[in-house]
Design a protein that fits this description.
1 helix; mainly alpha; 0% strand
Length: 25
């Protein structure tokens, strides 16, 4: 369960970063 939460958090961060990059462009 802890691993899943960590992966989810990482996925969320990566997604946010992608969105931020798209917004900048």
């Amino acid at each position: 369960a802890v691993d899943e939460e960590k992966i989810r958090d990482r996925d969320a961060e990566l997604r946010q970063r992608k969105v931020s990059s798209s917004s900048i462009v």
